[in-house]
Here is the input.
Amino acid sequence: MFVQLLRKSILRRKSRFAMGVASVLIGAAVVTALLTVSLGVGDQVGQEFSKYGADLMLQPQSNTIQVGLPGVTIGSVTEQKYINESDLWMIKTIPHRANVLGFAPFLYQVVTVGNGSNAQQAVLAGTYFNKTVQILQPASPQDPTVFSTGIEDISSWWKVTGNWITDQNDTTSAMIGTNVAQKLNLTVGDAFNVSYTGTQNGTTATNVKELKVVGIVETGGAEDNQIFVNLPVAQDLSSRPSKVDTVQVSALCTRCPVADMASEIQGKIPGVQGTTITQLTNAETGTLNKYQSMMGLVTAVALLASTMGIFTTMTANVADRRREIGLMKSIGAENRSIASLFLAEAAITGLLGGVAGFGVGVVLAQFIGLSVFSTTIAPSWEVLAVAIPIAIGVSLLASAIPVRRATAVEPAVVLRGE
Amino acid sequence: MEDALISLEKITKLYSGETRALNEVTLSFEKDEWTTIMGPSGSGKTTLLNIIGCLDLPTSGIVRIAGKEVTGVGQAALTRLRRENVGLIFQQHHLIPYLTALENVMLAQYYHGSPDETKAVAALKNVGLEHRLDHPPAHLSGGEQQRVCIARALVNEPPILLADEPTGNLDQTNGHVVLQLIQRLHEEGRAIVLVTHNPDISGLGDRTIRIVDGSVEQDFRSGGGDRNGE
Here is the structure.
């Protein structure tokens, strides 16, 4: 009987019921869209920001020694130190390892490019392009034992004409900065020689390597003047096996402080100093916080609008049905029976509005994803699990006062026609 | 008075703290008795009926239904008393417009906690509406609607049937049918309290009470003496 009563009372007021559903739909759609965007793009936002460079710079701790006569300092020398390439896997074992999006080591050296009068000096950087790093001792048994990383992950914003170096064992390919390409008149597919002259154990030696241009890099920064090769090529050329100068770490820091990650890496890898790229990090965190605050505000406003919509609809519903409520009470309905009828109607309004709002919200999320982040966002069942209870909750909450009014209806007054 | 089905002792009802609808009314109603309450508009007839029907509480005085004191109980207890003891017939019929005749009758059963379609069909058959079970009120004539209202009032077999101008909105033929039904219910052993303006109807009952300005002016039995002041 209750179901029949509920069904027929809803069907009798289809347009008003539809208005209630529409009110909930608006709130549920906004909640769904923003939660979907937040979950689906939250990390992607971090990645978007990470395109603009690394968040952390790891350098070897250097001892600077003051030199001069007693009492007179005439300068300082800094002992050349390196980070061991064999320690880099430890970056993925820190407590915040899930937030390590990628890293790339760099070993720099000044090389001579070309021969004779055309010879030019340039900075050659050995790095990882697409390296599979073995994690020798994962921090947790659930962690993977390999991690694929490289400069392509942390500097995906580079404009590359030609190709990236994709094979980690490729010892002949190079990517060159656009300025280097112009000065040396090199283009993709051209071969060129680099030579490095260094002193080891008192002996000066020159190593020469022939490389082939596979890609030309344009960043507008220092990279335009550099030549990039796989790390082993640079290590061989300068006879510094297993050494790196710096490591750039890109952190996915929508939920973690970069400074903590820097400390954690310092704790893991001895002799390494981690520096946050503060300005970038602050901008990233600030923008993300603003983005999430704005989403929270929009959600609150949308839910408030839904609450007001349901409140108005239910208030009008109760006012219209005063005589019906009075009659029900006169033939024996208790307050809880009246309250159940209206609350069930509110819950159904919330459920239908929530389901429809979820559908609309998913479409809205796609629109936001495509227009703002240039990506599609997959619908999330987690969002549905949150959006439906919120929709039903808002509907029930907004109905509380109208339902109280319904239970306060006095049958005698109503049946007298007052 | 102690054994009366309904007893009212010095009932006063004030509206908005000053309008006196009933003024120290003392009455009792016996089982099997058909009482007609008459009086001019605004005399307090409907207020009296509402108090007897547990739809309203008096401002002062004591009401007892089947020996249980009504005054002072909470709303839920008042609803229970009404549900178990009183069947209501209204002048305006007051049917739920979106339910069928059968569903309107079953709604009273539902709130009584004993839905039984067979019994509801029997109640409608009893008022001659077995062919109108699935019709909504809008598809029924005024007389038929009133008969649905009567079926709803009697389906839970309450000992008291209260009727407020049951023929007030009906033509003579339908009014006659409704009164015949009430007569039959009375013969089955129910106490009937009927409010009307129509002096012809008062002759059908065992007893007539005339209310004027919230007080009992006359209270007499058909063929008997004036009970006023008993």
